[in-house]
Amino acid sequence: MKQFFKFVLATVVGIIIASIIPLILIVGIIAAAGSDKAVDVDANSVLHVKFDYPINERTPNNPFANLGFLGLDGEKSVGLNDILSSIKKAKTDNNIKGIFLDESYMMSGQATTEEIRNALIDFKKSKKFVIAYSEIYTQGFYYLASVADKVYINPKGIIEFRGFSSEVTFLKGALDKLGIEAQIIKVGTYKSAVEPLVLTKMSDANRMQVTSYLGSMYDYFLTGISKSRNINKDSLFNYANSGRIQQPEDALKYKLVDGLKYKDEILSELKKRTSIAEKKDIASVDLGDYVKSGTKVDTDPKDVSYKNRIAIVYASGEITGGDGDDNKIGSETISKALRKVRMDDKVKAVVLRVNSPGGSSLASDVIWREVMLTKKVKPIIVSMGDVAASGGYYIACAADSIIAEPNTITGSIGIFAVLPNMQKLFNDKLGITFDGVKTGKYADLGDVSRPLSPEERAILQNSVNRGYDDFTKAVANGRGKTQAYINSIGQGRVWTGTQALKIGLVDRLGNINDAVKSAAKKAGVKDYRIVAYPEQKSFLNKFGEGLSAEVKAHFVKAELGENYRYYEQIKGVTQMMRTPQARMPFDVVIK
To answer: Are 72 and 554 contacting, i.e. CB atoms less than 8 angstroms apart?
Structure first.
């Protein structure tokens, strides 16, 4: 009997603990989230900036930031919106004497880096200093750091300066081994998103377009460094092409850096610049904390102040149907946001911030419709981020004006569909066969257990052709061009922002602040507040879904390491095999 009561007692205690622990976790996270109080900045401070995390468009509303449990590392990132606003704020903050760019890896696209770089250039107009230091300079971080007053590298450090390369991972060999055939229906000579599924290397057309846009991005990269470091651009090209920059001493010799120093020497210089005694600590504030030291530029739409507002609608990530989040464009989520700003009399103009390689052509068309309706009511300006291509361009083309960074990747006007034929996998690899009946010839169209018939392929091709016709017609109407002209620069071809300006796909080069100013000018308002949409989910709303997603992603990343991107690619393939797609290659790596 004692054993029975012990068992019952242990069971009850276990149930109580299992019930209480989630509550404790929730209470703990709420307490931590509520502890984000405003940060006081000491006089004579240095703003410490370190980019060692992927930079999203907006600072994520992450309940796990700065927490470490369930295997999560609690890393916290600052979004581009807060990075730019913080640098702008520091420019006029009397307590900030300068910026220290510390070791960073710039896990961001070219246009994101460009926006931050331009913000630093503007910051320097205040006559405050910018110092950059790293043990390892990636090309991305060096491009950013090159605007600093002084660029230093560790005497034993590494600096990468050897030119750009672009890499695509091809999956055809793996699919062949599995007995899976990717059946492709597409429009567009350059629509290279499907190539990894059917080829083992780049097609000639794709190689030509990648060479073109990569060359354009590299030329802009060299031009920027040439201007900021006062080094001839041709010389920079030769340094990289001949492999002259191999050691820190080489970087110093060819004036890419200003000195070889250890971290303690950098700290001593910062103390001198801020008039701090050598034995005292530097007054510094991390970027993440500085964000909390004042009013954010992107405010809550529920803020009742200011009768004039410019709304920034953030559309970032792959385009899908339904709801989205900070890293996925859901057609329903963005449509709701556009309807809200369209019907809000306080919102005088809209900036649609697009950072997307595209996705579902149907979802893209749904968002395009809302952009068209918004344009009839109030000005809408598009600001392009790292990439605004294919479906990302589709949702942008109806705007009053399109502004891109010179190194934005855009265009890719084309449509495709992928349907797997898994007959060999089922029959030969697994020994599985299928049989059945149907009431119509095309009742089982899309069945993955067999190849498409010529008639079925013709049906799908007709659907894709229609999608391409709709796409090019929308672009032609939005850009004031003929459909024939759009077709000539379409065909799935990818362009940089600089190239897109020349062919009329964008109206001017600039950043998100330029887009806001353009929107305000078109609306005829000078005094306004910026509000951000879609509204980010509250902590409690995000907790349930965030926990499972964060934990799952953490353990998959931990298990796969650098191979995680291949896992993401395979997931992308399965998503592409559902509906017609207007998207770029699912994973283009530029180094």
So the answer is: yes
Report the 3 state secondary structure along 341-365: HHHCCCEEEEEEEEEECEEEHHHHH
pLDDT digits (tens, 9 = 90+) for 205-254: 999 999 999 999 999 999 999 999 999 999 999 999 999 999 999 999 99
Which phi and psi angles does 412 have, rounded to 5°?
55, 45
Evaluate whether 492 touches 189 at the Cβ level (below 8 Å): yes
**Distance separating alpha carbons of residues 33 and 23, to the nearest angstrom:** 15
| 390 pLDDT more than 60 | yes
Whole-angstrom distance, CA of residue 520 vs CA of residue 525 = 5
From the number of C-beta atoms within 10 Å of its C-beta (0-12, 13-18, 19+), residue 232 rates as exposed
Band (pLDDT 50/70/90 cuts) for residue 569 is low
Of 124, 104, 98, 96, which Cα lies nearest the Cα of 55?
104
Burial class (CB in 10 A: 0-12, 13-18, 19+), 461: middle
Terminal alpha carbon distance of the chain: 70
- 191 is an active site residue: yes
140-153: average pLDDT: 97
Query: Hey, what amino acid is at 181?
Result: E
Question: Which residue do the tokens 């004006």 mark?
Answer: 401
Q: Is 331 a catalytic residue?
A: no
Instruction: Answer yes or no: are the C-beta atoms of 328 and 355 closer than 8 Å.
Output: no
pTM of the model: 0.85
From 425, 419, 374, 423, select the one nearest 396 (Cα to Cα): 374
- Which position has the token pair 């180094």? 591
- The catalytic residue among 89, 128, 186, 191 is 191
DSSP SS3 for 379: coil
Least confident of 138-152, 177-191, 203-217, 568-582: 568-582
C-alpha span between 55 and 517 (Å, rounded): 23
Structure tokens, 319: 């385009």
Residue 35 is classified by DSSP as: T
The dihedral sign for the CA sequence 368, 371, 375, 376:
positive
Those residues with Cβ within 8 angstroms of residue 34's Cβ, 6 or more apart along the chain or in another chain = none
H-type alpha helices, 344-453? 361-375, 391-394, 423-424
Mean pLDDT across 370-397: 97
Q: Which among 171, 186, 102, 93 has a CA at the least distance from the CA of 461? A: 186
Catalytic residue, from 77, 361, 390, 518: name it: 390
pLDDT digits (tens, 9 = 90+) for 28-44: 444 444 445 667 888 99
Cβ(170)–Cβ(200) below 8 Å: yes
Query: In the structure encoding, which two tokens stand for residue 377, read together?
Result: 């009511």
pLDDT-derived band at 188 (thresholds 50, 70, 90) equals confident
- Per DSSP (E only), the strands in 489-564 are 494-496, 508-509, 529-533
Q: How far apart are CA 329 and CA 318, in angstroms?
A: 6
pLDDT at 83: 95
The average confidence (pLDDT) of the chain is 85
Token pair 């019907």 in the structure block, residue: 343
Alpha helices in 480-510 (DSSP H): 483-489, 497-503
Q: What is the C-alpha to C-alpha distance for residues 138 and 144, in angstroms, rounded to an integer?
A: 10
Judged on CB neighbours under 10 Å (0-12, 13-18, 19+), 502 is exposed
